[in-house]
Amino acid sequence: MKKFKYGILATGLGLAAISFSFREDLFLVSKNLDIFATLYKEININYVDDTNAPQLMRVGIDAMLESLDPYTEYVPESEIEDYKLKYVSTQYGGIGAATVLIDGKLYINEVSEGYPAYKGDLKAGDEVIVISGVAVKGKDRNQISQLLRGPKGTPVDLLVIRDSKEIAKKIVREEIRQPNVSYSGMLDGGMGYIKLDKFLENSAQEVKDALLNINKENPKGVVLDLRNNGGGILQEAVKIVNLFVAKDQLIVTQKGKNVEKTIAYRTLFEPVSTSLPVVVLVNANSASASEIVAGALQDLDRAVVVGQRSYGKGLVQQTFNLPYNSLVKVTVAKYYTPSGRCIQKLDYAHKDANGVAERFADSSMVMYQTKAQRNVYSGNGVYPDVVVPAAKLSPITITMANKNLFFNFANQYRKNNVKLASAKTFQVSDADYTAFINTLADKDLTYQSRTERLLADLRSEAEKENKSAEVKADLENLKYKLTVAKKVDVIAHKDEIKKILETQIVSRYFYEKGRIEQSFQYDKELAAAKALFVNQPQMLAILKGDGNYKVIGKPVKETSSVD
């Protein structure tokens, strides 16, 4: 009885402590809100110059949320529609064309096949000068977007310049639906392929439909391509994993400070295919929901992950409504894959003196095990089972792309060539490449190579140590040699430059679908997936962690990251 009384006493004291802590938190919130409101009022009344009250408040809100993490953000009423398009829905009213600003001028960059811009014969390279009576000169991206988008069925009048002639176009807006699955089908070698670009509404159904169609062809296996997929809705990720694993399997658990945000997500439906071999492609830009899918299929030994280490975003956000039709998106939890690991890369709770979040130390990584007892590790993203080194573009190729030199040549190529025979096999000929190089004669291709950056650092260090005179001649000689070497970069990097050029040209004829198909011939990650499907014993050995095929190991320390 005495123990029972002490138990009641301990419980009472615990509740009292919680109640006190809760009241103290409420007091601090109330106190600081009072201080902030009073400060805001005094600034608006007494500051020497006129202030923009809404802008002042927005700056304060953004600064407060920025101190937390990049994913916690305030969304005012004016930005709700853009927010929904980015994080929730794939539908909007528009014309179905992508635009690009070059030297202050607005150009059509790409049109979506079957949509109003396509039906109205808008072409990549058309310069848009007026939208519904409003000159676009001086307008920013957001203003241009607002002019082009609008309710389904409403007209938008465009004045464009093509071949130095002004052409008037009347385009009727339609509901534009950007699919989550941008491409699916059978590839050479009996391999199914599904490219999933985002996890927004209906993404799981789109993947399911694609998988059902592929299964009709009796594939050797299926590739789920999550490269450059920044994520989206967590529940859609769970449904997609459910297509490949049995019902009632734990897929992901989210855990937050608020106990109500701690939720375990399990598969709820019968799968489409539990035996079809699966390869998941990831890279450094595969994040969030992409990592849930890749991590869960890896932990359950259901798929081989191929590519590069994923981004490392192990956080979950939830939106909350605010007054005046605004909302706030808040990071409410971290998520954990079936083995129990969290793949979050950056530690936002502990920032350096400059307020920058640092990566979790390698020493803090914890080892977990998959269903087949393979070793996997927490932190710093999902590590692939089969690593394919990432292709890196040279400085000259990046400079050409930033200066839109590929864009301009592709537009001219389209004018000079009525059609292409095939997207899948198209390659730029040596004659076409020479023609492209000739267009660069009067272009500014100034860029700094990595070697030149190191040379500049060396010069700076020499000056600090008062050794400039001793090494000046050597540094100048090296600088000259680097300048000469840069002149032949267009030859040294011919292969990668051609690939970018081919992508631009193909999109003028075969749009997004053709651009994806053309890229297959160079895709090293896809080639690695094909090799696994051909060598099924090797694939099974990887999933079982047997012998030489146990390629998952504790990741080595890396010196660079994509944030």
Describe this structure in words.
This protein has 17 helices and 23 strands. With 563 residues, the chain is α+β, with helices and mostly antiparallel strands. Strands 3, 4, 5, 6, 7 and 8 form a six-stranded antiparallel beta sheet that branches. Strands 10-11-12-15-16-23 form a six-stranded mixed beta sheet, with helices on both faces. Strands 1, 13, 14, 17 and 18 form a five-stranded antiparallel beta sheet that branches. α12 packs antiparallel against α13. The relative contact order is 0.09. The N terminus and C terminus are likely disordered.
Spell out the blueprint of helices and strands.
Elements: H1 2-46, H2 53-66, E1 73-75, H3 80-87, E2 91-94, E3 97-102, E4 105-111, H4 116-119, E5 127-131, E6 134-135, H5 141-148, E7 155-162, E8 165-172, E9 174-177, E10 181-187, E11 191-196, H6 203-215, E12 221-225, H7 234-242, E13 250-255, E14 263-266, E15 278-282, H8 289-299, E16 304-307, E17 315-322, E18 326-336, E19 346-351, E20 357-359, E21 367-369, E22 375-377, E23 386-387, H9 395-402, H10 405-416, H11 430-438, H12 450-464, H13 468-487, H14 489-492, H15 494-519, H16 524-534, H17 536-544
Parallel strand pairs: 11-12, 12-15, 15-16, 16-23
Antiparallel strand pairs: 1-18, 2-9, 3-4, 4-5, 5-6, 5-7, 7-8, 10-11, 13-14, 13-18, 17-18, 19-20, 21-22
Number of strands: 23
pLDDT averaged residue by residue:
87
Please, how many helices? 17
By helix and strand content, what is the structural category?
A: alpha+beta
* Estimated helix fraction: 40-55%
Question: What composes the largest sheet?
Answer: 6 strands, antiparallel
Cα-based radius of gyration, to the nearest Å: 28 Å
| Coarse morphology | globular
Distance between the termini: 59 Å
Uncertain runs: 1-13, 547-563
Q: DSSP strand (E) fraction? A: 15-25%
Oligomer: single chain
